[in-house]
Amino acid sequence: MSLKSWKTNVAGYLLLAPSLLVIAIFVLIPVIYSAGLSLYSWDMLRPTPTFVGVDNYQRLFTNEEFYHSLKITFLFAAMTVPLSMLIALIFALLLDQGSKKLMITYRSMFFAPMVTSTVAISVVWMFIFHPDYGLANAIIESFGFKPLRWLNDTNTSLMSLAIMSIWKTLGYNVIILLAGLQNTDSSVLEAAKVDGANKWQIVTRIRIPLLTPSLFLLLILLTIEQFQTFTQVNVMTKGGPAKSTELVVVQLYHYAFELFQMGYASAISMVIFAIVLLLVVLQMIVVGRKVHYQ
């Protein structure tokens, strides 16, 4: 390696150092600490944790409540991830056709929920889903349907949270896909028009295939995010009714900060980490092959 290349590499690592330090302090060290704590029994009141080995994991894998919350979490992700991507794709394609001034305005409107407190948004959506005077029931009643109990019914509570989550992440998803659309090589689109392709063919056979890197990134980010969903559940339903919305992170919080079983909660967090990591790897292997890069 030449002296110039060595200096370039050193300069690059020095520029990365602050970010790497933040990741190490707030991500890597807590993960390692949590992995170690999962082998102990500790209620935060005793000064010294008690080593129990894999007992927390044995208890976890024989706990029906954990499997129930895991099933609810997978169902929640299955409801939100595909719909979030589809709706974001539709809006991104529509916004990409508009003028630049309108795009800036609509982009700001879509992104507003992302920079608003999730607690505040959750309170607003609780009013929207109120069974007596909520906007959601007013809308469906205007079409002749019977009002629903939304957050208070085991059949609709998870769906209600999914609707709120899709709405909250819509702006971020649209921005990512819109950036991907605007990165499309204009010469490719012009060549397709010269060859006689109509708008539908350009969208389905050129724009969407070239957008697959952004769609793939969004798929991974949404999968990770939905498995970490907590705030809106804690505010709107607290896991109820009848544990119909008790996502796995909600259960983790229950054992950690309500029952003070930090070792067992750490074991839950490590299992969630392993599941999400496995899902991301599977997505990279299965879906990653279908990604078209320019």
TrEMBL record:
Q: Which InterPro entries match?
A: ABC_transporter_permease (IPR051393), MetI-like (IPR000515), MetI-like_sf (IPR035906)
**Which CDD domains does the record match to this protein?**
TM_PBP2 (cd06261)
Q: Does the keyword Cell membrane apply?
A: yes
User: For the ABC transmembrane type-1 domain, which residue ranges apply?
Assistant: 70-283
List locations, semicolon-separated: Cell membrane
Q: Which UniProt keywords apply?
A: Cell membrane, Membrane, Transmembrane, Transmembrane helix, Transport
* Family classification: Belongs to the binding-protein-dependent transport system permease family.
* Topology versus the membrane: Multi-pass membrane protein
Q: Which PANTHER family match?
A: ABC TRANSPORTER PERMEASE PROTEIN (PTHR30193), INNER MEMBRANE ABC TRANSPORTER PERMEASE PROTEIN YCJO (PTHR30193:SF37)
According to UniProt, the name of this protein is Sugar ABC transporter permease
Q: Which residues cross the membrane?
A: 12-33, 72-95, 107-128, 158-181, 202-224, 264-287
